[in-house]
């Protein structure tokens, strides 16, 4: 089997990255990245599915061993993306999807350069603003703050591997699947196909 | 309109690159790279379609001005791929396809790093050998020479951008089209989409 990859979906608030990821995941080829947290499980949350739950000392140990792709604190609880889970899934041929804001995405890329970074954005700036307005959940100040941040985040675009426009969501998903296929065709991700060429394995590598 | 790109299809003899290129070209998005030559036109050959015909002094001038992606001599005539034609087509949004053997492909990449290099190969080495045998046009010695050369060419694989297996030709074509789409989604090839985002143009960039 060929290796999978780490796919980071990022972009400004209003780019629709949450929806895109939700539509991408229900597939055998994709797996959602799971966060590790020191927060107590809520009713119905399953360890290893919703989160990997751990103690503060377990968390600290992994952090000190450089074992997180990125980590952060919210309301006194620690959250982090363990590199071990990502690597296991990739070795099993999966495309691990991580949805994350722009600053975090660039940090992950620094730590894990093989990651594939996709910048998702609406077709126009006006559309981005309307999407934020339509939600109706944020104050005018908050919308102003978010559109300003979006402008700043756009400055980081050239650090990304790909730019996908989320106008029609099916077209955006199609583009993302094409990117994943193309990335899997990189020669350095093709050891299975190359071994097969020389007759060293029987597998029909995908 | 977004920029097109230069797509180089290469690989060992028996990889089927000629057939792949023939099936790829009849599309509005693709254009075959045209060679410039000092050879006289044959009956039916059209200047600017089959070849760009030129004099030896015209050829020499372009060569001295570093205006060829690659050039070679056959039977006393000069042949070269003019970079000007490729650039014009790319500016017009086309994917210019250049079918070329491995040594030439790597030379073009050196001269034109934006080129996208695809290494095409049969699923197995045995299949490569059978394809050469099936042709029935080459001597045993020639087949031996070509399989030996294929082994050498495989050594260059990691210098390529992508590896496409040509087992089922439709799957190979599908992979190549996905690569082209993914490459067009690179942020540095997306100036049209980015300008559109900021409201600086009306075009719906593809």
Could you give a quick summary of the protein structure above?
Two copies of one chain form a homodimer. Chain A has 206 residues and is an alpha/beta fold.
Looking at the overall shape, the CATH architecture of chain A is: 3-Layer(aba) Sandwich
Average pLDDT confidence of chain A is: 91
Find the structural class of chain A using helix and strand composition.
alpha/beta
From the N-terminal CA to the C-terminal CA of chain A, the straight-line distance is 7 Å
What is the alpha-carbon Rg of chain A in Å?
Answer: 19 Å
Largest interface: A-B, 33 and 33 residues
* CATH superfamily heading of chain A: P-loop containing nucleotide triphosphate hydrolases
List the helices and strands and how they pair.
Two copies of one chain form a homodimer.
Chain A: E1 5-10, H1 17-24, E2 30-32, E3 36-37, E4 52-53, H2 56-64, E5 68-74, E6 77-82, H3 83-91, E7 95-99, H4 102-111, E8 116-121, H5 125-135, H6 140-154, E9 162-165, H7 169-184, H8 191-197
Parallel strand pairs in A: 1-7, 1-8, 2-7, 3-4, 8-9
Antiparallel strand pairs in A: 3-6, 5-6
Helix pairs in contact in A: 5-6
């Amino acid at each position: 089997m060929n290796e999978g990859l780490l796919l980071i979906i990022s972009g400004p608030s209003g780019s629709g990255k949450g929806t895109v990821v939700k539509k991408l995941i229900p597939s055998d080829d994709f797996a959602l990245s799971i966060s590790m947290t020191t927060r107590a499980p809520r009713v119905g949350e399953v360890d290893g599915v919703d989160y990997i739950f751990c103690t503060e000392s377990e968390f600290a140990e992994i952090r000190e061993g450089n074992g997180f792709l990125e980590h952060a604190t919210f309301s006194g609880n620690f959250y982090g993306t363990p590199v071990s889970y990502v690597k296991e899934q990739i070795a099993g041929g999966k495309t691990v999807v991580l949805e994350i804001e722009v600053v975090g995405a660039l940090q992950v890329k620094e730590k894990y350069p093989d990651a594939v970074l996709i910048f998702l954005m609406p077709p126009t700036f006006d559309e981005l603003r309307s999407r934020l307005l339509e939600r109706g959940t944020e104050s005018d100040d908050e919308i102003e703050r978010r559109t300003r941040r979006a402008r700043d985040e756009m400055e980081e675009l050239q650090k990304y591997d790909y730019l996908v426009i989320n106008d029609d969501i099916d077209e955006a998903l199609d583009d993302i699947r094409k990117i994943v296929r193309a990335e899997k065709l990189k020669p350095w991700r093709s050891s299975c196909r190359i071994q097969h060429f020389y007759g060293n394995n029987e597998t029909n590598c995908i």
